[in-house]
Amino acid sequence: MDTTQLIEAITQCNRDVSNGVPGAKEKLLPLTYQLSASVETPTQMIWSTFSTGPLRAATVRTAIDLDIFKTLKAADGASTSILDLAKARNASPDLVRRIVAFLASVDIIFETGVDAYCATRISNALTTPGILGGAIYGHDIMSRSMWEIPSYLSKRSYQNPSNPVDAPLQDALNTKQHFFPYVSANSLLVKSFADFMGVYREGKEHWTIFYPLRERLQHVPDSSSGAIALVDVGGGLGHDLAAVLSQHPALSGKLVVQDRKEVIDSIDPAKLDAGIQRETHDFFTPQPRKARLFYLHSVLHDWDDENCVKILQNVAKGMDVDSRIAINDLLVPDRGSSRSLTSMDLGMMALGSAAERTESPLTRVRAYRSHLKTKRHADNAGLAPPSGFSCQYCEQNFTRKEGPIRHLERNQCPKAPNPKRKHESLDSRADDAKRRACVGPRSDSTASDEIDQDIDSGYGGLYVREGAGGGPSIASSSKSPEDSTTDQTVSAGAPSPYEYSRKASNVSADMPTPVQLPPLSAVWSPEYSTAPSTSHDATSYLLPAQQSPAAYSHTATPSSLTRATTGDSEMSETSWYNPADEDEDDEKQSFLIMPNNPRSMSSPALHTPGQGFDPTTGHTGSEGSRPLSDAMERMSLKNVVMDNHSIDAAVSKTIDSSAVSASRGPSRFSLATSTATSDYNAKRLSFTSLLGGSSIKSAHPSAVYSVPHSRTASLLTIGSRSTMSLDEMAAPFASEVDPELRDHRGKGDQGQGRIRRKVFLPSLPSISSWMPQSRPRSRDSNDTDDSSEALTLTASNRADGVQWDLFAPTGSAGGATKGGKGDQLWVKALEDHHEDARGALTLRKGDVIQVLPHRGSGNGEWYGMNQDSKKGFFPRKHCAVLQQRLYHPTIPEEG
Ligand SMILES: C[S@@+](CC[C@H](N)C(=O)[O-])C[C@H]1O[C@@H](n2cnc3c(N)ncnc32)[C@H](O)[C@@H]1O
Questions:
Q1: Is 714 part of any domain?
Q2: CB count, 10 Å around CB of 483?
Q3: Which of 24, 25, 52 is nearest to 36 (CA)?
Q4: Structurally, how many domains does the chain consist of?
Q5: Residue 263 C-alpha to ligand 1 middle, in angstroms?
Q6: Same domain, 564 and 605
Q7: Mind listing the pLDDT tens digit for each residue in 11-55?
Q8: Is 745's C-beta closer than 6 angstroms to any atom of ligand 1?
Q9: What is the pLDDT of residue 882?
Q10: Given CB 3.0 to 4.6 Å as the disulfide criterion, which of 286, 355, 616, 881 pairs with 317?
Q11: How far is the CA of 207 from the centre of ligand 1 (A)?
Q12: Does residue 403 sit in the same domain as residue 331?
């Protein structure tokens, strides 16, 4: 944009700010930066960068020492003379004059006359603990470390720093200590940093808004039982927990804030909500608490990858079967990163050789995942894994690989109660014990207490459990965790990264063997972003890898963009999955990524009372909205390349998404939807459609096709999404959406402009070309050969815009299946549909219907049998295809 356009954009944006348009505020400042860049000459750039910039920092810091901001504030809007400003510290008036003149010239204070000044909004803020702390910490640590970057990098031949105790900070401050111990030695810095942590994310959406806390903390027993709902690991002064309490006062279970001793000691108990318990805990030692949720906000970004892994490993030790870890950190997009994000990233480098993680080529979280796995094996070196499990119902023993979850949820247990009830009971806390009984290691296990409380990852859970022979154990705990109401100090014998030597080569004695991160090149290949080259090239069913927010920068919703590009945090949540429930190959290749960017798709309506997102219910008020709170994703290493935005884009075109699940099996990517997010099993089961494409931007970006590996999608729950209507989902990508899709918006939908329950597919040829094993058949085919295909494309893309009917049963549908594995076609009703006609099947939303081969099928109708064994014709357009009935517990196996 040229200067004129920028001025117009600023005017418009300013109007939006006045009208309270969400996201406008965040957009305004970057626009002003762009404007000054467009008018600044190179010489002015030199002055502003190397003179004004450092001087702002230096004079603000000096003015704090001279109490200038306090004195101006005390004048309560009246002017203060230089003489009065100098008095507080008995400073030279001539010196003070020079300093305040500069501060006025950069608009930090206001010059009211000759030698007379008054406070501004900013200078008043500089007297409050958070902003004051930011200025002190910013000057004394941050900017000094940053100034050191050029010489530091030069001395180290421009290699990316990775040693936490050999960062620019150590050179700048002439210390061998890590940032945190260095700060600890200085009470002013401890307080400044902790206070600043309370405000540094000010203005950004709080995690209590976009994270489904209530849902996650459901069924936590009352705090009188000692149960802990939430531990804020490295939680500073407890401000995040205070916000949780104010938003969700009725949450049951205790809240615990853990941090280093000096931080915990600096919390004034009188100022901390009584519902929050303080606790000293070093997160490099095993987590002493069991809690439903462990929350890490801006913790991992302080650390290099190896230490992130250690932190997560230690947190994982506190995980119970239904625990989760929630990670709230910034995620740097591949393109179009904002100045706040890039500054944070380099800032983390300067302070501790750390980084803000990028979202592609994938997040390093994957690496954490693989580290955990590696560590798990390492921890148990020499220990026999549990030999198996026994089912509490049938007492059958089975191998670890078969897994209890598979046994129960796939209805393979002959003695389990009614499968449906069984299934429900798994969701109920009351039956946790039963679940565990089945899940737990067999009593004859030789290593029952070592590891491997394999759990259903849908509940989140423990992935690593260390036993007596394992790693460090808790050395001391002054009180029992349950009884404690005040501080606890838990220490452990694990070496602290603070103690690492500066030289990596010297550290082996202290340090657990570092686990090598996989080189990114191993998981990233340009081929992943290319279009399908041949219809049989399975690995080409990939969404584009590099869709960054910038790619959508011309779209209409300001909030979606600003949020994506101005450094809002990304919320990720992980629950380790149960490797026993996977095929061996799958396990080797699997990892999780955390693509969740809940707000990259937000739109104004999300926050409009009565219409927008309601954090208490997790729903929006708008019709057609669906909770997206449980996006799931599961991918395999060999062909995963996907970032947030490609997923988001895909989601935006997946209609009727009450929950969106994405998975990539060994050969395909799938995106699945379901209609009942609150029902875990429904999520597993309702894989209805799969969306893939060569490029989101291509003319026909989407296709629906079957996936034989949809089960993998159920194993990991990742992140949370806000609730949003389909329009809201699509809005950020409005201009990217397939024209056909766009044209149909509103049609067949009572003109409300909502896209609901329809998938508008591009031309059939392109779809069938993406179906390597498909053989188009007649829709009425009654062929019962033993084709291995589950589904075959047959239908056409009708002009009326209601195009769900691209699947038809193959010959095997409804017939005998190979190995009883259920190649039949099952569909799920997306809405109620009543038919009076004879031979018609009435659909109730959520009904699962087995499609039966029938010569009369056609013209948009299928013939099928519902759960009550009623048979009849029904319109396909009201249904979505499920993958394998194997996943539906309510439908017993045939024969
Ligand atoms: C960037 S701050 C984030 C604080 C808080 N979670 C927030 O978002 O405002 C990182 C926190 O990690 C804490 N921390 C650093 N090392 C730690 C350790 N070994 N054990 C526990 N906490 C630690 C720091 O004291 C600090 O409070």
A1: yes
A2: 8
A3: 52
A4: 4
A5: 9
A6: yes
A7: 999 998 888 877 788 788 889 999 999 999 999 999 999 999 999
A8: no
A9: 59
A10: 286
A11: 17
A12: no
